[in-house]
Amino acid sequence: MKQKQIKAPTHEVFHVVGDGENARWTKIGVAWAHKDKEGLNLAVNYSPLVNGRTVVRKIKPATEASK
User: Fold this and answer.
1) What is the reported pTM?
2) Is 29 in contact with 14 (CB distance < 8 Å)?
3) What are the CA-CA distances from residue 40 to residues 24, 26, 27, 53, 61 (Å)?
4) Is residue 2 part of a domain?
5) Looking at the domain assignment, is residue 35 inside a domain?
6) I want to staple 13 with a disulfide (CB 3.0 to 4.6 A). Which of 3, 20, 29, 53 is the partner?
7) 5 belongs to a structural domain
8) For residue 33, which of 57, 10, 61, 58 has the smallest C-alpha distance?
9) H helix and E strand count, the chain
10) Domain interval for residue 18
């Protein structure tokens, strides 16, 4: 039986309150890009109850994220 390979998420999902330097970003889940690159599947672990916006960002490699 062939095992299904689980792929790492390609994006992180955040709830953002506020703007600019005062914005508060809370990671609420992850996302995987569709094979055709036309959409995303989201896995959200937290559903915010306050006003704000949902932002999906590509995950950067650890070496790039530390810059």
Assistant:
1) 0.77
2) no
3) 24, 19, 17, 17, 19
4) no
5) yes
6) 29
7) no
8) 10
9) 1, 4
10) 11-65
